[in-house]
Amino acid sequence: MSLNQSATSSAAARGGKPGASTRLLDAVQSIGLLFVIIIGGVILSFASPVFFTRINIENLLFSSTIVAIVAMGQAFVILIAGIDLSVGAVLALSSVLCVVLATEVGLPAGLAALLALGTGALVGFINGLNVTYLRIPALIATLAMMSVTRGIAFLISGGRNIAPVPSIYVDIQAWRIFGVPAVIIFTLLIGILAHFVLTRTRFGREIYATGGNAMAAQLAGIRTNRVTIAAYMISGLAAALGGLMITARLEAGAATAGFGYELIVISAVVIGGVSLFGGEGRISGVLLGVILLGLVQNAVNLLNVPPNYDYVVSGVVIAAAAALDVYRRRYVEAGLRRRTMMAKRDRAAAEKALRGSEVERNPRDATPAASQ
Amino acid sequence: MTVATSLAAPIVSRLMEVERPLLVADGVSKTFPGVIALDEVSFEVRAGEVNALVGENGAGKSTLIKLMAGYYAPDSGVIRVNGIVLEADPATAHRAGVATIHQDHHLVPSMTVAENIMLGHWPSRYGVISKREQLEHASRVIAQVAPDLSPEMLARRLSPAEGQLVEIARALSEDSQVLIMDEPTTSLSGKEIDQLFRVVDELKAKGLGIVFVSHWLEEVFRIADRVTVLRDGRLVGSEPASELDTDKVIHMMVGRGVDTVTTKSQAAGDIVLEVRNLNRIGVLDDVSLVVRAGEIVTLAGLVGAGRTELVNCIFGVDRYDSGEVLLENRPLPPGDPNAAIEAGIGLAPEDRRHQALIGNLSVMTNATLAVLKRIAPRGIISKERERAAFDKATRSVAVKMSSPNAPVSTLSGGNQQKVVLGRWLARNPKLLILDEPTKGIDVGAKVEISEIIVQLAAEGTAILIVSSEMPEVIALSDRVIVMRSGHVAGELGREAITPEAVMNLATTG
């Protein structure tokens, strides 16, 4: 069949690698980020003798784990072209609940933690219902939910920090595996799981399809409403998990925890190359985005930048990353359009070009230019 | 009308005054990628004349309108309005005196009628708008077209008919001399049409030139002084309405050499799809039809006849108000595409890019999207099953691609359509609905897709096609159902399918 012929012949022309120009582009995005992180690290290690020490690196990663967990949940929502602003508040509610249920209600600590996670998923479920069946724009629905959830956290806690927390929370946080904090390894495992779900499962594919083109997905038999609700539930669950982690770190259940978290998390996801338009992005990118933000924070601390500059620096980094995303998109689209036009105008010539001068038109070459 | 030339001088000048061309398009051509939309078309709009522009879907009417309104510039040839040469700039066309009245009115809903009429030209002093002046001016023009309408009313509360009248008032307030009315009657009731036509008559008397685009020939003959027919981007003729009749115009619209029929006529099997008395208020009016196994049925009709809406209701994309859709005698729940798919229906929508394909995902992912459950037992995708499903999807449609992992958006239109077809073939559908299956596809791929359709029918699949391409309708169909304004205007068996018969039902049935 001509299908197999043309597929194999041009795959061969690319040195055996199957086409997948978007996948390549995603990879380029990740590599670009990695590059930025390494450059930043090198500069920092010259600027501060403390930076390249085991303690500092461990610290950087350790303090990034909460953002990483919440960001991975948020990534599911952004992949379906939604947004979840309630994550910071869910994190706070979970923090309050897991302590109150254990110390004041008297439930076992494990059960209290599970209930806090369940509450996070429930909030996500309601978010999902609001954006699907009630058709409230995600921005508004989750903004409202942010307010409600934060309010409930304050109502339950009465506004004060609740301490002490069950000792097991703090103990787990201190665990080490092969000398590495268990929390870091746990976060990586969650990352691997999320990556697997997105790339290798039916649900993952439904996420990409829904985010890439909801109408088309629905007409292909995908129940996009369910997929959307599930994505919000994952985000809620992840935020609640972040709440448990922050409780261990603060050694208190705090209704004020995670103020402004949603913006940090969304920034990390977008910096990591997940398109705000949905349907594009990878978990590895999200994790790199989180690390880049952590690096910025670390730099601010190490270089004794006055804390008030903190927000300004973060803001500039976020804007730069978003601009990069737009440019990347524009280049990809220009590349694709060029390809489509060529294919239309003269298929034979295009075929020939694919074999011969692949290098010239491959978006691989367009992207580094975009990411400068 | 050339009679005037031989008459005595004073009369000539008077006649010329009445029939002075306001707008002249001289041999204009316009090409879009892959399509010649207009091919050396000459066209005139004269003062005090209604020139009706008619033609099949895709004949070039829209392109000509857009050229006259300045949205595009012609590739060759010129359009002059009162001597001013139009370019690709709507503002120039506007200043030259061309105004377009759209079928769905383009008004700012949160502003009043008066504000809309004066849109962008609000009378103001030092930037402060004078409400009184605005009201006076607006009232003056409204009085000419819709004396009953309050200039203080918000535009969002206007009916479509009133909205059109306000647009006309706006054109008058700007001293426009050429009015382009693009299917102005589609959303109007009979009474509203009468009112619109009265206004058009008055405008004519004032010396405006009017271009009237309509699919409905009866209406054309009520209002037009001259009928201009386009076909396949070429001018077929422009004759005084008094010298034409419906039959002649239809013949001009379709009068191409008709290809001889290429398909088999085979015995149709059991009823696969049955639609009973389907109603959707304002869209579908008591539609009933059946499609049998192995049969190719085409829904013909003009744009806006309700064909896409009908197939969307069948597939569950849209809901309907009453009626029933049965697949193999079992009723389908309304508004549930998933149930339709499970029951064995596949839909290749007209707008592939927005409704069928997920552009950034790979060809393979797109082709296997409807069989996700099968390729992912227990939720985890099996590479082997995915590959097998993909091979099945593409077995009878040869998709030309650089790799199955290439984004589907890099394929040509024809190959994209094959991916959509393949997606359903992977499911062995009982009924395949194809909405304009060859739209935007080059000629070679068109033939391939037609062959796939015929092959599928031969294997027993019931096929329902929405098509506006007459040769395709004639070559493929076992039966043609013609729709007009949401109802079935008539049905033609294999022997009765002629372009004239179809067009006759579509325009008058």
Structural descriptors:
heterodimer, A: 372 residues, mainly alpha, 17 helices, disordered N terminus, disordered C terminus, B: 509 residues, Rossmann fold, 35% helix
* CA distance, first residue to last residue of chain A: 43 Å
Task: Specify the number of helices of chain B.
Answer: 19
How far the N terminus sits from the C terminus of chain B, by CA atoms, comes to 32 Å
Number of strands of chain B: 22
How many structural domains in the coordinates of chain B?
3
Instruction: Please list the strands of the largest sheet of chain A in the order they lie side by side.
Output: 1-2
The CATH class of the largest domain in chain B turns out to be Alpha Beta
Category from helices, strands and their pairing of chain B: alpha/beta
Count the DSSP helices of chain A.
17
Q: Would you kindly provide a written description of the structure presented here, covering whatever features stand out?
A:
The complex is a heterodimer of chains A (372) and B (509). Chain A is mainly α. Chain A has a domain at 46-259. In chain A, 77% of the residues lie in helices and 1% in strands. Chain A has a two-stranded antiparallel ribbon. The two termini of chain A are 43 Å apart. With 509 residues, chain B is an alpha/beta fold. Chain B has 3 domains: 16-106 and 160-254, P-loop containing nucleotide triphosphate hydrolases (Rossmann fold, 3-Layer(aba) Sandwich), CATH 3.40.50.300; 257-344 and 431-509, Rossmann fold (3-Layer(aba) Sandwich); 355-428, no CATH class. Chain B is built from 19 helices and 22 strands. A 6-stranded mixed β-sheet of chain B has the order 6-9-10-3-11-12, sandwiched between helices. In chain B, strands 18-19-20-15-21-22 form a 6-stranded mixed β-sheet, with helices on both faces. A 4-stranded antiparallel β-sheet of chain B has the order 2-1-4-5, with helices on one face. The longest helix of chain B is centred in the middle third of the chain and has 16 residues, at 190-205. Chain B is elongated and about 75 Å long. Chain B starts with 8 loop residues before the first helix and ends with a helix. The interface between A and B is large, with 44 and 48 residues.
